[in-house]
Design a protein that fits this description.
Shape: elongated
Structural class: mainly alpha
Mean pLDDT: 89
Number of helices: 5
Helix content: 55-70%
Strand content: under 5%
Distance between the termini: 41 Å
Number of strands: 2
Largest sheet: 2 strands, antiparallel
Length: 205
């Protein structure tokens, strides 16, 4: 469908508001505020634009509100069922990972014990060492398990743990701007490293 065809199918109110907005854009682009009268006219432009925007919002909501209500109702209808599948994953995944983690722990313990025996000279033959190594490998289950309906795979992923916050460089700390603004601007708390300035803000009502 061409753009011209889509525009033809737009409701009349959309065309009207669009035309009005385009006119305001042209006026705003050419606007120069040199006198009090110009300033008053600028206020009128914003007021008329605000009124047109409100009308557009109302018309838009006439269409969107029922759609949003229908969407919410459908999401609510499926949410209980989806939560069951989430629960299944929450129950099974930790058990699978726990099984693998325990197997890996046992394998590490066996490796350490084997290394000590080799160091102490208790095991010297290469074939004996190789046999122990293979046995230790067999302790850990395969990384990927295939079944008739799919497969599961264990992957090693990097994780980060903070062991000492005091050693983390300043560049990695993020200021809580919401909390800081509330303290300085609403509670009038003098926070070191901040200042309060006043800037003009325009309100249209």
């Amino acid at each position: 469908m061409t753009m011209a065809k889509k525009q033809e199918q737009q409701p009349e109110i959309v065309k009207t508001v669009k035309t009005t907005a385009e006119q305001y854009i042209q006026v705003a682009e050419n606007l120069k505020i040199l006198t009090e009268e110009d300033y008053t006219e600028a206020t009128n432009i914003l007021l008329r634009a605000k009124e047109a925007a409100k009308l557009a919002e109302e018309e838009k909501n006439k269409v969107l509100k029922p759609l949003k209500a229908a969407l919410k109702a459908e999401q609510d209808r499926w949410k209980p069922l989806e939560s069951l599948f989430t629960k299944i994953n929450e129950l099974v995944r930790p058990k699978m990972l726990g099984f693998v983690n325990e197997k890996e722990r046992k394998a590490r313990a066996e490796q350490e014990a084997l290394a000590k025996k080799i160091e102490a000279g208790m095991i010297k033959k290469a074939e004996t060492i190789e046999r122990h190594v293979e046995r230790i490998k067999d302790i850990v289950p395969d990384r990927t398990i295939h079944t008739g309906s799919g497969s599961s795979s264990i992957r090693k992923i990097k994780t980060m743990n903070i062991v000492n916050e005091s050693q983390i460089p300043d560049e990695f700390w993020v200021i809580d701007m919401v909390k800081l603004r509330e303290a300085v601007l609403k509670k009038d708390i003098a926070v070191p490293g901040t200042t309060v300035t006043y800037e003009n803000s325009l309100a249209i009502f």
